[in-house]
């Protein structure tokens, strides 16, 4: 039998959330090894999103999404300033395209305030035309504290902190399965140099892979695992100049925030993500989906020219509630008490706003595991 490597903490998954968790634990003085299946960190959902720093408007008050988005946003802006991570507090407009949607904006303003987002305001069509002359609407909600970020530079900064506090990141190391021992977990790790690890704490931050890892741990109570659903979101990029300097959102659709205009830090515009409930993971963008994009975008930007959109990329939302349940659902962050094992913590359904909330999610995990 091969030798077993004994470790203190293992974080599984090197996306933005796993890196934030490993950083938090390393700063707290724990010995941390992060295992990532892929040859690089951050190449799955953390590379396939809108890179928006969300303010925290939409989520039900009291939900983890609301709490951790607002707390995470404050921490993220502070960290970006401190570490010179490229970002821009460009602001966003949620646009009502008809009178019925204005009532939604009023509700959203109340929701935002209840969540502790107190800088939003409603504007009428005239002010909207003054702020963003190419965007049309009956009214809009202005969110000044929404922004955009270079998520890869953020992840690089997390890695610098992990390594500065003695943590290690091991790539090409898929966790294949494991076994719960009385107060530790034995993991089988594949890759070129397969190894057996015994860890006093395992944090499963494997994103879309979180369910498979929990499912492969013999002795784990499966009842603690939430449902698993996938909602794919496609993006189309715009050739030519962006029609606005702020992010432009329609009112949300079930499962997502609606086909919105986001900008990258170079000012290039892209639209998306839409919502498609799927059973399997693939990242192809079907060019035929463009028809629906043109229709959705022209509700707030009527001058969008035919042929201006090109298929760009897609991402997959890990969801704990499916379309029958309304497609919402909160983050599920389980410490040892909730997983039912003293050495196991697991995160499920870390979809948007997981990037914004990453530092607050990590802080919560740290508290749950007593770091
Ligand atoms: C379309 C879309 C748009 C979004 N837009 C935004 C946004 O604008 N703002 C925002 O705040 N959030 C946004 N999000 C959410 C955000 O992208 C995610 O919450 C975040 O990236 C999740 O990070 P993660 O580390 O949990 O997952 P991931 O980035 O998926 O990382 C998980 C890692 O685990 C690894 N892994 C999986 N299985 C194993 C295994 N067995 N062994 C070892 N490693 C394994 C994977 O290779 C991967 O690197 C969006 C999400 C989507 C899908």
UniProtKB/TrEMBL annotation:
| The FAD dependent oxidoreductase domain, residue ranges | 8-365
InterPro entries for the chain: FAD-dep_OxRdtase (IPR006076), FAD/NAD-bd_sf (IPR036188)
**What keywords appear on the UniProt entry?**
FAD, Flavoprotein, Oxidoreductase
Per its UniProt entry, which superkingdom is the organism in?
A: Bacteria
Q: Which Pfam families match?
A: DAO (PF01266)
Q: Which cofactor does it need?
A: FAD
GO molecular function (one): (S)-2-hydroxyglutarate dehydrogenase activity
PANTHER family of this UniProt entry?
Answer: L-2-HYDROXYGLUTARATE DEHYDROGENASE, MITOCHONDRIAL (PTHR43104:SF4)
Family membership: Belongs to the L2HGDH family.
What is the protein's given name? L-2-hydroxyglutarate oxidase LhgO
Organism the protein comes from: Xaviernesmea oryzae
């Amino acid at each position: 039998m091969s030798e077993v490597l004994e470790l203190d903490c293992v974080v599984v998954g090197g996306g933005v959330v796993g890196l934030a968790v490993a950083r938090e634990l390393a700063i707290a003085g724990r010995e941390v090894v992060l295992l990532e299946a892929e040859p690089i960190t951050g190449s799955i959902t953390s590379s396939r999103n809108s890179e928006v720093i969300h303010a925290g408007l939409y989520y039900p008050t009291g939900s983890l999404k609301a709490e951790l988005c607002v707390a995470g946003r404050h921490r993220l802006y502070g960290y970006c300033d401190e570490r010179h991570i490229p970002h821009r507090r460009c602001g966003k407009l949620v646009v009502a395209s008809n009178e019925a949607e204005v009532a939604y904006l009023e509700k959203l303003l109340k929701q935002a305030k209840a969540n502790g987002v107190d800088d939003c305001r409603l504007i009428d069509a005239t002010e909207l035309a003054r702020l963003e002359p190419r965007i049309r609407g009956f009214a809009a909600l202005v969110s000044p504290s929404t922004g955009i970020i270079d998520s890869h530079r953020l992840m690089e900064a997390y890695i610098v902190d992990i390594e500065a506090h003695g943590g290690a990141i091991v790539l090409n190391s898929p966790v294949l399965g494991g076994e719960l021992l009385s107060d530790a977990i034995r993991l089988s790790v594949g890759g070129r140099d397969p190894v057996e690890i015994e860890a006093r704490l395992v944090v499963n931050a494997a994103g879309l892979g979180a369910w498979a890892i929990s499912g492969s741990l013999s002795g784990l109570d499966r009842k603690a695992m939430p449902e698993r659903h996938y909602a794919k979101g496609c993006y189309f990029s715009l050739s030519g100049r962006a029609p606005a300097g702020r992010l432009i959102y329609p009112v949300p659709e079930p499962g997502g925030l609606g086909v919105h205009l986001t900008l990258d830090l170079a000012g290039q515009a892209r639209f998306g993500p839409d919502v498609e409930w799927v059973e399997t993971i693939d990242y192809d963008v079907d060019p035929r989906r463009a028809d629906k994009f043109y229709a959705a975008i022209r509700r707030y930007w009527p001058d969008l020219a035919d042929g201006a959109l090109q298929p760009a990329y897609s991402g997959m939302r890990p969801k704990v509630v499916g379309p029958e349940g309304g497609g919402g659902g909160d983050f599920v962050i389980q410490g040892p008490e909730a997983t039912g094992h003293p050495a196991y913590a697991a995160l499920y359904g870390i979809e948007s706003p997981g990037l914004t909330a990453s530092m607050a999610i990590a802080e919560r995990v740290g508290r749950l595991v007593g770091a």
